Amino acid sequence: MAREQNLDLVEIAPGAVPPVCRIIDYSKFKYEHKKKQKELKAKAHKTEVKEIRFGPNTDDHDFEFKLKHAINFLKEGDKVKAYVHFVGRTIVFKERGEMLLLRFAQALEEYAKVEQLPKLEGKRMFLFLAPKAVKK
What is the structure's pLDDT at 134? Predict the structure, then answer.
């Protein structure tokens, strides 16, 4: 029957008794399957890590501005890596940088959960935040 219609005989369920077969155009079937897989992949959200940089002497206005950006990133489902960069002698103000990052984490408490508390690595102190729930 498949040869008469110029189609392929495809075995669907070989374990069934009797085995289940179908008469289809196999190349068209493969094409549509590949197309569906590509569509699913395109719809999947890729999590990115967005960085927000502070200085140890960051002012309140700058803090609020960066806070708004972080909220937008978290709402989109991205992770946020906030860090304080100590330049030159500002490394003396480690406590100030840690307080700034903790204040940042506390301000984002309803949008994100803390993945890693402030940690000093070289001249940078990092804080990682992950979104609580993706809202679109």
Answer: 53
Q: Which of 115, 112, 82 has its CA nearest to residue 99?
A: 82
Clarify whether residues 56 and 123 are in a common domain: yes
To the nearest 10°, report the CA torsion of 22, 25, 31, 35.
-50
Largest CA-CA distance found in the chain, in angstroms, rounded: 84
Q: Does residue 14 sit in the same domain as residue 72?
A: no
Mean pLDDT of the chain: 88
Domain of residue 54: give its range: 49-131
Among 22, 28, 19, 18, residue whose Cα is nearest residue 9: 22
- Report pLDDT digits (tens) over 11-23: 888 888 888 999 9
